[in-house]
Design a protein that fits this description.
Layout: E1 16-20, H1 24-35, E2 40-44, E3 47-51, H2 60-63, E4 67-71, E5 86-88, H3 93-100, E6 106-114, E7 117-123, E8 129-134
Parallel strand pairs: 1-4, 5-8
Antiparallel strand pairs: 2-3, 3-4, 6-7, 7-8
Helix pairs in contact: 1-3
Length: 136
């Protein structure tokens, strides 16, 4: 019997995420606009994805760095229901929130203070409910 990896307080439980998109170019533009980042579109066989910034040399399991993609596939449908992924909106959540509506999204909840900073919920350009988090 194979031994399972031990998950404890020092292990990053989240390793990867995929945000469904009907229109990858529109979704790419939305996230690049609100987060002020550059994303990379890549094709793997028949599957095309748009990657959030990452360093392929960094091992996620040991660095704690998590990344993901915008994905267009029959497996996923954009939805405002279900699991919510929180994306890093550092250093200032309000700066990112101010870009959401002009970029084609909607604010679903206002900026709320929590012990770990501030959070808000948005609806992205594809109709996905997404959380944003920053320390201020």
């Amino acid at each position: 019997m194979q031994k399972l990896q031990k998950i404890d307080a020092h292990t990053n439980v989240l390793t990867w995420f995929e945000i469904p998109a009907e229109d990858l170019d529109r979704a790419k533009k939305f996230y690049e606009t609100i987060l002020g980042i550059q994303m990379e579109k890549r094709k793997d066989g028949d599957h095309e994805s748009v990657f959030f910034p990452y360093d392929p040399k960094v091992v996620q399991a040991t660095s704690g760095r998590v990344t993901g993609v915008l994905a267009k596939s029959e497996r996923h449908t954009p939805s405002a229901n279900g699991t919510v992924v929180y994306i890093n909106a550092s250093p200032d959540l309000q700066t990112v929130l101010d870009r959401v509506v002009p970029a084609g999204g909607k604010l679903l909840s206002p900026k709320v203070q929590i012990p770990a900073g501030y959070i808000a919920i948005i609806l992205d350009s594809e109709g996905n409910k997404v959380g944003l988090h920053a320390e201020k």
